[in-house]
Amino acid sequence: ELEAKLNEAEKLRSEVIKLDEEHPPSCPLCGSPLKGEQLKKHLQNLSDEMVKYRSLLKSLLTKKKELSAKIENFEKRRAKKHRLESQLQLYMSELHSFPNLEKKLEECHAEAERLKKRIEESRLSLLNVTNTTSLEDAERAVEEAVKIAEEMKSLPSKRELKNKIDKEIKELEKKLGNLPQLTSKLKELHKRIEEKEEELRVVESTLQNLLQTLGNLQNRKSSLEKELSEIMALKEEAERLKKSLEELKLDHEAYRLLYSKVFHPGGLPTYLLSEVVNLMEKYVNRYLRLFGVDVKMKFKLNISGNQQRIDILTYSGGYQRRIETFSGGEQTLMGLAVRLSIGRLLAEVYSTRQRPQFLIIDEGFGPLDRDLRERVVDALKKLYEAGEYSQIVVISHHEDVKNHPAFRTIIRTSKDADGRSHVTIL
């Protein structure tokens, strides 16, 4: 089954390579390749195959875990066998000691018989030595002999020998009393040995089966390791396909944005207008900073159906303020910054090579009082000093504007009696 899945994966990989080698239609604007519904279907099929391979990998890992548990159980049973073998050796050692005990018991019986015989011989010897026919007479003779024996040096050694013999007799009698118990224990040990031998045969049979199973498991393990390596290769291939899928998703998102922002009806004008609004906001705030006005303006494009509206928001000191709350001079400079920005945008759009570097203001000071005209002229001077324009021409009938020191040259126009115009450069 795994080999069949691998063949399918190789087939899918060939299809992906084939798709990469094809030349799909391209975008007429940017030249980027466009993917169709057929590509999406192939990508979905690849995703489904990846899910199947992950499921198969999970199943193989579960089998590996089960085999590890069986091996661990086998190791425990083998350890139990070693313990039984050690206990059996102990029992065999005890069993080998029993023949020596029986032999020793027989020697004790023989020793006891010899002692009894010696006692009888001693009694007869005593009667013979005392030359008596009864023990009473012998006893009296012995009493006399005892007195004599006290002087004999050999008497202590004989007495010690007698005590030793009595002690041995007691020990032999004690051992003879424990003989039935030892015999019963011997029979019990024989029975236990037979049981352990039977258990040993079962363990050996089980061990043989386990060894055979272990060999099969080792062969299976080698096969599984080989399958696992193949699965890891498939996993790497799946990761590569996943990465390709992510790249395709990014392409799809880019195409979606292009469609929603540019290619759908009305999308391109709206998109361009939003870009123009952003650029205009940038120019206006740059001019306001140049004029030294603590005001920031934001332009917000609102679209409702086919209606488009640009809202102007003004901020000062980090807080939003209405335009009418600003001073007259601030409002005048804000209006000048907006008009300059619009003029610059129009110049950039319609100039073929580069934006013109001159500015002409025709009667732009009419409604302004003297202080406001002063501030506007100072703003124009700052534009010139900042290099925004290389030439600024102002047409005005206000004498204070004409005589302002910011202007280098004054051009006056006049008419003679015949109605002809004359130009004078001061």
Please give a quick description of this structure:
This protein is mainly alpha-helical and 426 residues long. It is built from 8 helices and 7 strands.
Strand order of the largest sheet: 1-2-3
Mean pLDDT: 76
Any idea how many domains? Answer: 3
Strand content: 5-15%
Radius of gyration (CA) equals: 61 Å
SSE order, as H and E? HHHHHEEEHEHEHEE
Relative helix content: over 70%
Question: What can be said about the biggest beta sheet?
Answer: 3 strands, antiparallel
Uncertain stretches: 25-29, 262-268
Shape: rod-shaped
Number of helices: 8
Alpha-beta content class: mainly alpha
Number of strands: 7
- Gap from first CA to last CA: 100 Å
Kindly describe this structure.
With 426 residues, the chain is mainly alpha-helical. The protein has 3 domains: 2-257; 265-355, P-loop containing nucleotide triphosphate hydrolases (Rossmann fold), CATH 3.40.50.300; 357-426, 3-Layer(aba) Sandwich (Rossmann fold). The protein contains 8 helices and 7 strands; from the N terminus they run αααααβββαβαβαββ. A hairpin with a 5-residue loop joins β6 (411-415) and β7. The model is unreliable at 25-29 and 262-268 (pLDDT under 50).
Notable features of this structure?
single chain, 426 residues, Rossmann fold, 3 domains, two-stranded parallel ribbon
Question: How are the SSEs placed, and which strands pair?
Answer:
Elements: H1 2-21, H2 37-130, H3 135-149, H4 155-263, H5 267-291, E1 296-304, E2 307-316, E3 319-321, H6 328-350, E4 358-362, H7 370-385, E5 391-395, H8 399-402, E6 411-415, E7 421-425
Parallel strand pairs: 4-5
Antiparallel strand pairs: 1-2, 2-3, 6-7
